[in-house]
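Sequence only, no structure available. Ideas?
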Amino acid sequence: MRWTIRHRTAYRYAMPVRDSFNEARVRPPTDTQQRLEEFRLTVAPAARVSHFVDFYGNAVAYFDVCDPHSALDMEVRSVVTTLPRQWLPWDARSSPLADARRAGQTERFDFSRASRFVDTDPETWRLAVDATQGQTDIWQAAVAIMRFVHDRMAYEPASTHVHTHARDALSKRRGVCQDFAHIMIGLCRSLHIPARYVSGYLATQGASATHAWTDVFIPTVGWVSVDPTHNRQPDETYIRLAAGRDYSDVPPLRGTYRGTNQHRMDVLVEIKSDNGSSSSFSASTAQ
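Reply:
I predicted one. Tokens follow.
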């Protein structure tokens, strides 16, 4: 499927600010699941945009605006073709759960430990043991955790924010896709299953266009994506942007500036397919 994506982020400040330094992770990668065909990023006030690849392999655009400004706008237009997915059967057997610890001792080490929004403390481990109900296979344990998170949590927009820790969302038993992903990651890691956070878009009518899901590592297969929010494996309506230990590694736009802390942020995402279907998402926050 071929998708055209427009992603706009707009900041409005209560008074002029300066020395704004920013990183954006909004360039969809080309991989086995999708192909990036076009990409254009524009910034206002006009700024020179540099590019690099971060520690986890994500494409990052970097720009700064040093002169005083009362507004900052970033707009991205991407064209992505998503490719047919090879789903792992739900009842497949993979590797013994006892092998998971060894899988997390190589380059996947960072995805096997606690991180900013994810913990692996004894309470999380106990919950993971209960969720997997004696499963001894890595894939079957991951599937059980996904279903546990989906059943235990209620999806409730605006019930949490981007800085909510997994334990806080879990205690409330409600949250958004970011929280579902963080909770699943913590439960997997507490059983030594490497798991990483994925940011992207969900291009379906009536669904939030920005989305988050989880990759789990299966030694005999590799990274496999699952979506605990929707209790499924991603299909061609999922468009990947970046992956990391948790949300703190992959925000679409992050930066610092000098000046007032009173600002408003508006986000607009529009996704259209070649067959004419579309979805959109908009959100505002103020501080």
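Residues 20 and 65 are 5 Å apart (CA to CA).
Hope that gets you unstuck.
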